[in-house]
Request: fold
Amino acid sequence: MFWTLAGPRYHSGSMSDFETDHSCHVTPGGHDAAAPPPQRDGFDRAAIDTGHIECVQILNEHGEVDQGLMPDLENEELLDLHRAMVLSRAFDARMLAMQRQGQMGTFAPNIGQEACMIGQAWPLGGQDWFSPSYRGFGAQIRRGWPMDRLMMLWAGYADGFPPPDGVNDLPFSIVIGSHVLPATGIGMAMRRANDPHCVLVNFGDGAFSQGAVTEALNFAAVDRAPVVFVCENNGWAISTPLIKQTAQPVLAMRGLALGIPSVRVDGNDILAMLTVTKEACDRARSGGGPTLIEAVTFRMSLHTTADDTTVYRDEALVEPWKARCPIRRFETWLIKSGRLLDADTTRIREECEQEVLDARERFRAEAKAHPREIFDHIFASLSPELEEQRMQYIRRLDRKGVE
Ligand SMILES: Cc1ncc(C[n+]2csc(CCOP(=O)(O)OP(=O)(O)O)c2C)c(N)n1
Reply:
């Protein structure tokens, strides 16, 4: 029997709207995720999976919903999803402005990728685990990270890094792809402990070029660990486009090669992201093992505030993605379907902006730099050379009367 993520219903939608640029078509195949792993004691041609990647889109860029695929969500929840995306964008814009004003450290914008982040975090419960990438602040806010804490984090304060009490998240890692193996480890431990929850890990297309990420998928597949892998394929790893990283641009194919149910999703479609992630989480929690979700999106802005896209990227590439904005298409549908008034969109934006400004005030009150700590938090104990430098530095602060 062929495996599909949720049966053949996903074939009904037209994928043409998001199968552009770094997207392409793949042909059917697959295997049954609910069945126990097949016992292979020889060369069994029938057991060989020749590959099937479904492409999932529910809400297209024109704000039209495929009613047959519409997830069962209350109006209130739909409006919460919308607000979460708007809040993420407001946080994004404010952080960028603060960085440009010298009030914030290096920051990785996420504009245009809000549906990916919010959609994948939505189905997670408090007992599930989440291992985010550095671009995942929208998801972190949803998971319960106060925005002022995230500001502390990006401003370089050690206090900002630990996840808040009771939030089952890992701190993100700047070492690309390094956070994916620990997520698999958590999943393997959960399976051994009969823990009925799951772990979701988010990483970029660039991270997928790190060998450790494929190893993490392989371990999870063999172990049937409850891990949901979300590769956020935004087309770029800093200045390296996907086409220079791989000759197979459908990254979900890699999951199939490892025996993992794998699916490609319009990453700018909040409804598709949520639906597919929910199904993957449910499968993981019920013993069905890992899933790979490739979310196709685009990095609209800078890699980080330390980046200048104009030296390596033709801005014309960004243009078509503006029309695929995840927030605008969702708003169009919410308004057309009578769930949101046009005037409400302005009010919601203003409320979100105010929330972010309030967080900035708390951050400003908390963020007191302690120059004397500059040598702390790096090594458990300092080498004699560093200790000497630290003492020189302290004497200098004393001379200048700096606390
Ligand atoms: C091991 C390692 N190699 C290189 C880098 C430098 N680096 C930082 S971000 C990045 C690109 C990552 O791209 P991707 O995984 O696609 O995520 P995105 O930034 O697009 O969200 C690179 C190469 C690093 N931080 N760690």
Observations:
- The beta strands are 54-56, 129-131, 199-204, 227-233, 236-237, 240-241, 262-266, 291-296.
- The first strand starts at residue 54 and ends at 56.
